[in-house]
Amino acid sequence: MRPRVVFLDFGGTLVESVPDSFPAYAWVFRRFGVPVDQERWKEADQRVWQRLGPTMYECRGKTPSFWDRVHAGVLHELGVSDSDGRICAALHDRFTSPELHRPFPETEEVLDGLRSEGLALHIVSNSTDFLPETISRLGWTERFDSVTFSQEIGAEKPDHRVFDLALRRAGCKPVEALHVGDSWGADYLGAKGVGVRGVWLNRRSAPNPEPCESIRDLRELQALL
Q: Does pTM top 0.90 for this prediction?
């Protein structure tokens, strides 16, 4: 059965996101003349995450406030004054910048092609409510019919609740949807677990843990449809 809805993961699938927070901090620190010491930052970041990390999902709909607390905590640990909040604001801006979430070369071409075939496109991502802002800054808001992210649910893929919400938003049955993502466990097994056809985006040609539909590039997706 040809799907009428395509779910797509975000990071690692549509964009290559910078995996480490330090470059963003370093960029902002240099801008404000703050000394850059990666080891000191790493220790400070770990201490703050030990305190605040478990509270992330309690901040649904309030992610900017959560991240302000994280950034302020790191700055405090480093002894950096930010009385007017300008450094925290710059960190927020940097972390949602398209420069840290770069589309793969084929992404927009494939999205346009899927749209031209009449398919509805939805993002399903393990992410926070920063994601819609990031998508907006990429100029992609109109490309997608909905955006579902794990923080609003309080669970991450492969948890079925993430896919259940995406299916409700898409107004479709599992057999009418296809999900593409770069994580074998979160994306392929998560989709399979709710009856959605899963396609593993295996950019690095890793061995398949079990027989499955897989592609190495988003351009290969159209041939599967």
A: no
